[in-house]
Design goal:
- The structure holds two protein chains of two kinds.
- By secondary structure, chain A is of the alpha/beta class.
- In chain A, about 40% of the residues lie in helices and about 20% in strands.
- Chain A folds into two domains: about 20-50 and about 90-205, Rossmann fold (3-Layer(aba) Sandwich); about 55-85 and about 210-390, Rossmann fold.
- Chain A has helices at about 25-40, 40-55, 65-70, 90-100, 115-130, 140-145, 145-155, 170-180, 200-205, 210-220, 240-245, 275, 315-320, 330-345, 350-360, 385-390, and strands spanning about 10, 15, 60-65, 75-80, 105-110, 130-135, 155-160, 185-190, 230-235, 255-260, 280, 285-290, 325-330, 370-375.
- The radius of gyration of chain A is 19 Å and the shape is globular.
- Chain B has a single domain, classed as Alpha-Beta Barrel (TIM Barrel), CATH 3.20.20.
- Chain B is built from twelve helices and nine strands.
- A nine-stranded parallel β-sheet of chain B has the order 5-4-3-2-1-9-8-7-6.
- In chain B, helix 2 (about 30-40) runs parallel beside helix 12 (about 245-255) and helix 11 packs antiparallel against helix 12 (about 245-255).
- The longest helix of chain B has 14 residues, at about 130-140.
- The relative contact order of chain B is 0.17.
- Chains A and B meet through helix 8 and strand 11 of A and helix 3, helix 5 and strand 6 of B.
């Protein structure tokens, strides 16, 4: 696997573990054990069982007939939106809660932006009867009230983070500080392929179920176990990591990922990290970052709260640098248009994040016989207030 | 000889090290704070480079960092402010901050600049010592900059030995399993840790930091190490002081 992590935890020059000494024992414990645990028969059995009976996997690979006709190509949607809790996030949290249990941890912390990862974490903690604390930027707490209430109903304590700009980056700072202050009993369920090694690799492996299923589903439905293209959106990049994982070394499969350009990658209101960023160290890994010339992290913007992060997983920084994946910028408007198109041609309301992947259809012409898999990472329930505001013209897109 | 080395050669006990964030409480306060600290007999000063995302810091230093950035402080400007500091100040000076601003400045340029203005060492909490050794040590050595490493109550003996071997100057003993901040007294696990480290008989002198805020906690920490570091409590005092110089004087006189 030439595109996966090396022994030291790097993807080329990106990744690594730039942690304060206080986090070292926990990260080292995880690093020493995560592969053994994940490869154990016990874990595999329990993980598979929960993915099947609790999450509802395999998620369907749906041939989108009308959308295909519209774009004169063959479009398949990988329906992660049908998972329990509404997105791919649950694949990771189910895996990590099992790993945390094997490590003997009795308390879980997590960060969340829009609340999807927070809800997915709160859900598995309720399932396992483990205490859960979720850090969320104070601004996001007020913007995403339904998800805050879902987490509370699930028995999770939601702590609003008042520092910085009070969004996802600050929530991550809050969770890291919690771990430094609670090194004995706590596991931090990081929600994306970011953070110090082994998180990017561990989360990518847990999400790789997406492309694992794609292989046999394609074989069955198309007659060959690979597509011509895979499209996915990236914030931190976990759904893209999962959708690409088993095809990384198969260079005939073209990988396309989309960053949230907000109002445009050439404006200050953007979250297109790879398009405008530069290498640096944030949240304990070396990766591409949105920063000013003094190395201060700048605030990202996107209509989609789940893509609103000033960094990107180190694996994506590397895939971008060596050209294995093509990264495109999708603006708010392009994403919203794609969301409405999918809704009205297929009867599926996508999450705003996933709409960024769908928008590629309007940017790129695919061949008539090309098999194009789009990872539909989440459903649009959580974004209804934004869609309603757009329909009622309360916000201009 | 590096001034850090010199300090620990001549003074073995009750070493007082003070941390503050450059550019806080006001943009131009850095030099006045340093000079007053020196007049009051501070042995070592850690000048904080502000960062937007200080994950190892508690509320007081987070806030000072944010204020400093809002005031317009940057590493570039900090070097500008302290360019003539060695005309008046002879004690060791350390820059403390997160890795990213230093990386963007450029490691080599940074080390050279430190040497030019008379900075003796650095503390970069999110630069682990294995990555430091592999990628950066030769550059720091070339410019005679001592990079100081931290140990915490969770660091095991084997790793402490490794860090001791990789260290120059002194070892920063983080007193608590916590982010920086003001705490009252020490808990039992901290006491046990101080004794455990003392018994290891390390090659390098040690300063205890995190949670040191008063004369009592300072003296207590000094029993188990060569001295102690005060950060948050001092930054808080600066925040509250109506007159900067008097604020610094009052704080240090209360400690010593």
């Amino acid at each position: 696997m030439k595109y996966t992590v090396d022994k030291k935890g790097f993807y080329g020059e990106f990744g690594g573990s730039f942690i304060p000494e206080a986090m070292y024992p926990n990260i080292e414990e995880l690093r020493m054990n995560y592969l053994d645990i994940m490869n154990s028969t016990d874990f595999k059995k329990e993980f598979k069982q929960l993915l099947k009976d609790y999450v509802g996997r395999p998620s369907p690979l749906y041939f989108a007939k009308r959308l295909s006709e519209m774009h004169d190509t063959k479009i398949y949607l990988k329906r992660e939106d049908l998972n329990h809790t509404g997105s791919h996030k649950i694949n990771n949290t189910v895996g990590q809660i099992l790993i945390a249990k094997k490590l003997g941890k009795t308390r879980i912390i997590a960060e969340t932006g829009a609340g999807q990862h927070g809800v997915a974490t709160a859900t598995v903690c309720a399932l396992m009867g483990i205490k859960c604390v979720v850090y969320m930027g104070a601004l996001d707490v007020s913007r995403q009230a339904p998800n805050v209430l879902r987490m509370k109903m699930l028995g999770t304590e939601v702590i609003p983070v008042e520092s910085g700009n009070k969004t996802l980056k600050d929530a991550t700072n809050g969770a890291m500080r919690d771990w430094i202050n609670n090194p004995w009993d706590t596991h931090y369920i990081v929600g994306s392929v970011i953070g110090p090694h082994p998180y990017p690799d561990m989360v990518a492996r847990l999400q790789s179920i997406i492309s694992e299923e794609m292989k046999w589903q394609l074989k069955k439905q198309v007659g060959r176990d690979y597509p011509d293209y895979i499209l996915a959106c990236v914030g931190g990049g976990s759904n893209a990591a999962g959708a690409f994982y088993h095809y990384l070394d198969d260079e005939k499969v073209k990988l396309i990922a989309t960053e949230a350009a907000g109002l445009g990658a050439d404006t200050p209101e953007t979250a297109a990290t790879l398009a405008i960023g530069s290498p640096g160290v944030l949240h304990s890994c070396r990766t591409m970052l949105m920063q000013n010339e003094d190395g201060q992290i700048t605030e990202p913007y996107s209509i989609s709260a789940g893509l609103d992060y000033p960094g990107i997983g180190p694996m994506h920084s590397w895939l971008h640098k060596i050209g294995r994946t093509e990264y495109l910028c999708i603006t708010d408007k392009e994403a919203v248009d794609a969301a409405f198109t999918l809704t009205q041609t297929e009867g599926i309301i996508p999450a705003l994040e996933s709409a960024h992947a769908l928008a590629v259809l309007n940017k790129k012409k695919f061949g008539k016989d090309d098999v194009v898999v789009i990872n539909l990472s989440g459903r649009g329930d959580k974004d209804m207030h934004t869609y309603i505001d757009i329909m009622q013209k309360k916000i201009n897109i | 000889m590096n001034r850090i080395e010199q300090l620990f050669k001549t003074k073995k006990n009750n070493i007082l090290s003070i941390y503050f964030t450059a550019g806080h409480p006001t943009l131009d306060s850095t030099v006045e704070i340093i000079k007053t600290l020196v007049e009051e007999g501070t042995d070592l000063i850690e000048i904080g480079i502000p960062f937007s995302d200080p994950i190892a810091d508690g509320p007081v230093i987070q806030k000072s960092s944010q204020t400093s950035l809002e005031n317009g402080m940057s590493l570039k400007l900090l070097f500008e402010h302290i360019k003539d500091i060695r005309k008046d100040v002879n004690i060791p000076l350390i820059l403390m901050g997160y890795l990213n601003p230093v990386l963007q400045y450029g490691i080599e340029t940074f080390c050279k600049k430190c040497n030019d203005v008379g900075i003796d060492g650095t503390i970069l909490p999110d630069l682990p010592f294995d990555i430091y050794q592999e990628e950066y040590e030769s550059i720091f050595d070339k410019h005679n900059i001592y990079n100081i490493f931290l140990i915490t109550p969770q660091t095991n003996d084997e790793r402490i030995r490794k860090i001791d071997n990789a260290s120059k100057g002194f070892i920063y003993m983080v007193a608590a399993s916590a982010t920086t901040g003001i705490r009252q007294g020490f808990e039992e696990y901290q006491q046990d840790y101080f004794i455990r480290i003392e018994k290891l008989g390390l090659k390098h002198p040690r300063l205890i930091g995190f949670g040191i805020s008063s004369r009592e906690t300072f003296q207590h920490a000094c029993k188990y190490a060569n001295g102690a570091i005060i950060g948050s409590a001092f930054v808080s005092a600066l925040e509250e002081a109506s007159d900067l110089k008097k604020g610094v004087q009052g704080f240090i006189r209360n400690i010593q």
